Amino acid sequence: MDLHKLIAGLAEKNNNKIIMLVADGIGGLPMTPGGKTELETANTPNLDALAKIGVQGMSLPILPGITPGSGPGHLGLFGYDPLQFIIGRGALEAAGIGFACGPNDVAMRCNFCTVGQDGKITDRRAGRIPTEESAEVVKLLRAVKIPGVEIFVEPVKEHRFVVVFRAEGLGGNVADTDPQAIGALPLDPVGHDEASKKTAEIAKEFFNQAKKILAGQPKANCLTMRGFAKRPSLPSYEELYGLKAAAIAVYPMYKGLASLVGMEVIGQPATLDEEIDVLYENYDKYDFFFVHFKYTDSRGEDGDFDAKVKMVEEFDRVIPRVMELKPACLVVTGDHSTPAKMASHSFHPVPTLIVSELARTDACDAYCEMQAGCGGLGHFEAKYLMPLAMAHANRLGKFGA
Amino acid sequence: MDLHKLIAGLAEKNNNKIIMLVADGIGGLPMTPGGKTELETANTPNLDALAKIGVQGMSLPILPGITPGSGPGHLGLFGYDPLQFIIGRGALEAAGIGFACGPNDVAMRCNFCTVGQDGKITDRRAGRIPTEESAEVVKLLRAVKIPGVEIFVEPVKEHRFVVVFRAEGLGGNVADTDPQAIGALPLDPVGHDEASKKTAEIAKEFFNQAKKILAGQPKANCLTMRGFAKRPSLPSYEELYGLKAAAIAVYPMYKGLASLVGMEVIGQPATLDEEIDVLYENYDKYDFFFVHFKYTDSRGEDGDFDAKVKMVEEFDRVIPRVMELKPACLVVTGDHSTPAKMASHSFHPVPTLIVSELARTDACDAYCEMQAGCGGLGHFEAKYLMPLAMAHANRLGKFGA
Q: Is the CB of A384 inside 8 Å of chain B's CB atoms?
């Protein structure tokens, strides 16, 4: 039986609230084998107090040994099998700038490029045109008009931008137009099924109009289109769990990912303290809160062990304010590990803590990798975290009699 | 590869005996987070002695977060994926009174109801007619005769009873006849495929004859039929494991569930001591013994922490007698957790202990949730417990060369 059907059939509505605190990239590594991780080094009295009354385990973002990107990492946390629900590159790039694709949208990642008089590419990234300059050129492209299609053109960074076509009956199965070589012409967009042929026609028309608009530009005088994708067809939190869900995040990517599963993105917080303010202001209005803390991942990506330790302590500092709300179930986790030692996402499982009246206390007295590895929740695929959270909030009924 | 095909292909016959002691609902919760569970509170010197030489782990009855009913809980313990093999309501109700459905049987749950002179329902439960009274009326229905069909009518409790039709070629896909409303007529039974149409015809004839028989009754003057179901098609213990299996239980439900997988139900024990007597008397005749202890679950369902602790100690008391039989493999487990704190089945995993010459001793020195959570068997879906038991009894061969 499909996990989603099972959960949707057992979900019960009540007033028990769930807060999921996601410290991005929280899991780490000792700088030297045998040493302590960032989490084990940090002074985290508040998380450790929760570890004493809660239950810990290890969340496997995908499968053992597999390092997730932010997209699949969060899909898993949200309860969607990241190997079953694939977010296409275009839809992920759109999510990354906080643009939530609707069901009729096809999104693509575009690159400005430079072409010579013969139309052949001389620079695939338009000299890595600076972001501010690029954003101005992107605005010019909003002049493209195609009857029956709503078009969104949004800047990303340097030569990269996002284009979204919104119209009924479009397919996402269109080949990239980037020839991946200089000295070549941009390729014609080719659709691989009827709906995608329609998208390819629109893309061709977009390209032709865009080329005319860009003709006078010194560097960004042409474009290539890649990663055409519709958003994945995900059942919403309301459909799946019967939860009215809210997302509180600083960075656009996480707001975008949360909207893909039907969470409402609330507030405009700029710091973790402001995120908790937003949580307080909206606590009565939702059943479920996804609160995203970015900087544990950022400092990990920087390869800065000590700075990541400080960010863990920063995260620990807000725990008492969260607990004052007395959620029926608090989940503390991450979407993946980002060890400073690797300065990148890693495959290591993520220490995960559940606090609830229904948590079966284990032997752990600190929130960290070493203890989570032998905690009462065991090691589980991240897609089971939402069923566990629902159960600990007493929101899942019995299977069979 | 299908788990059952794999195991059936590897199963080897020898004289090594397996005893599975199931303390129903054994897993618990501390009354206050950070405290001790029932099992951790109980004085269990015999189980703890086994924990020192055996190996422990956590059995997940279904999947993380999912609370099982007794049906799916036991199917998992018996090695059948409870999400693949669904016991229909009628077949489960029959099992619940110890009636083992055969392959040609369709079982249904029936309710006595009260109808007015116009045939419309005035009370869907016939005034919750007392069990003894109801049982007498049930007997009257045994006068119903339908050519070519063997019919069983058995009382359950109050207004509820079970009817089983036995004949070749009957289907179980028949809609309920309970209109779920008063002031409505009982519905005609409708079959959704050829075989089920045949069942529906029989049900209609049964209903018509029954109505005449019941006409004079003050309260139970009509009936509705629900949850039509054939028994799930389960390979037997003999087919799957090459085990001649016996079930020893006090309560009809567990005898019924065991017969569904081809176990022979032996003895008429009324207490745990008598169950162990039956085990002794029959020890030479079978390879596998399922011994069911009910009262850990019952006291959990009562919400009585201290009484459940006593029942755990009662269970512990018989361990030395069981060990004197020197089984090749002893399994101690439960079909689910029933924390007194929740007064119901719960989703929490079940501490599970295996004692065998082949058990790889872990660090545990007590049988309890806290230690089982980091024991040598890890956390595993219950359907893997039988392969583990078979392996620990040296009854599973090598896969591949």
A: yes
